[in-house]
Amino acid sequence: MLGVFAEFETNLRREGQLEGIKAAKAKGIYKGRKPSIDAAKVRYLRDEEKLGPAAIARQLGIGQASVYRVLGNTTAST
Question: Of 41, 37, 28, nearest to 62 (Cα)?
Fold first, then answer.
């Protein structure tokens, strides 16, 4: 029975938190984390320097999956 009340309180707290985040986003206060990877730099290295994903990842000190994710997002939006 105590578990049911604890879960209910957790759900109430979570709903209040989500409402607060929604209100902060509407005011422009809550913007989330800044991107840690410069997508323009990744595109430049691919298009101008003709580097592959592995070379881009080594040069920027990021993972290959991150390079693929950036390149996948840019091709989808272009």
Answer: 37
